[in-house]
Request: fold
Amino acid sequence: MQTALQWHIKKLYHNYKDLIENEKQNIDAVVILTPTPLHIEIILYLLKQNIPIICKKPFVSLKEEIQQIYKFMIQQNIF
Reply:
């Protein structure tokens, strides 16, 4: 919070879902730089919001997670 005040940041979000919900119209894409085990939740959320994703390597931790993402994208006609 102190850093936000120091840099005159007008809006501060404590989680990505609030940020997406409130700023979706201003978002062109999201870069995911969190630890790998958190990627799957964020990726699926962003896909549901129809927001383009750039994700650092490794993309996911488990083979099952990539299968889950692929299945979701097929169901949503994204892929």
Q: What stands out?
A: The CA atoms of residues 16 and 29 lie 13 Å apart.
